[in-house]
Amino acid sequence: MNSRLAAWAVRLFGVMLMLSCLGYAAVRAPDRSLESLIPRWAPPPSEFIELNGQVVHLRDEGPRGDPLPLVLLHGTASSLHTWEGWVAELKKTHRVVTVDLPGFGLTGPSADGDYRDEAYQAFVLALMDRLQLQRVVLGGNSLGGLIAWEVAARHPERVGALVLVDAGGYAIQPEPVPGGFQVARAGGLLARLGKYVLPRSFVERSVRNVYGDPSRVTGALVDRYFEMTLREGNREALGRRMAQSRPGDHADEIRTVRQPTLILWGARDHLVPIAAARAFARDIPESRLVTFETLGHVPQEEDPAATVAPVRSFLDNFNIET
Fewer Cβ within 10 Å of end Cβ, the chain: N or C? Predict the structure, then answer.
């Protein structure tokens, strides 16, 4: 009896080990090289430039004679692709620059591992200098919005106007926190495991959580977020960014912004709730707030046609000294 029980236990252990191996194989997600991602995610007009020791992925579209180009910055764990709907419309009449920020997209991890707000501000200014953009309309979503208003506040001579889309800046706790952010913040064994294991379904849930209407999330969209996350070094970079981030530390500077500012917000944003939109509108004197009742944290991506309309009006119907 004991021998039969022991044999059964051995077989059971073998089955469990096999299932564990199969489960690991199903969710194993090793890093992907930049070269392997370029064919699908960086067709023309994508280009790569060297900037302060780092290869940077960007797109520079529209008429070069535009006296006040538009520079758009994406959010955490996103990429320049989030602006494609806007760019398709705006590039008809405006020069539009989109870029993958250090730590994200095809640009990949920062050369020096610095992901503080100040490092991102310096990156934006260096990019403008490299492209010979003396003054721009600076726009951004989430983290990109945070960087945009910080640059405007600290270097007002370089920013003629702002477009803030569900921007960061205030010390407001998101509810719920997306799963990817939770893993990045966790550190320790969980974060280390996240460098090798990443179920695509986990990324899909995270994307659906930031959309106001999850039915808008397509397979191709999930592919993009998934593969950008797997870009070599990006998972570790996200963890470092979360560790170095200090939400709300510079919120008092928002009141110093004096540029004309368009504030766009998805009313179903649970990551940066609508209360933050009202705070921006209160604290920036030259601002206008437009909300979208059915959209979430990335309204420019979720419904480009509806959200680009007030941007076009904003750019075309006020006078900015160049």
Answer: N
Strands 54-61 and 47-51, by their bridges, are: antiparallel
- Residue boundaries of the structural domains of the chain: 34-316
pLDDT 10s digits, 242-290: 999 888 889 999 999 999 999 999 999 999 999 999 999 999 998 999 9
Average pLDDT, the chain: 87
Locate tokens 């008429």: which residue?
A: 63
Q: Are 45 and 64 in contact (CB under 8 A)?
A: no
**Helix residue ranges, H only, 28-94:** 34-41, 84-90
Supply the Cα-derived Rg of the chain in whole angstroms.
22
Side-chain half-sphere of 77: how many Cα atoms within 13 Å? 25
Chain centroid to CA 12: 45
Architecture category of domain 34-316 in CATH: 3-Layer(aba) Sandwich (3.40)
Six token digits for residue 149: 């208003």
State the CB neighbour count (10 A cutoff) for residue 228: 22
Residues with Cβ within 8 Å of residue 284, at least 6 apart in sequence: 149, 162, 254, 255, 257, 261, 263
Residues in a beta bridge with 264: 165, 290
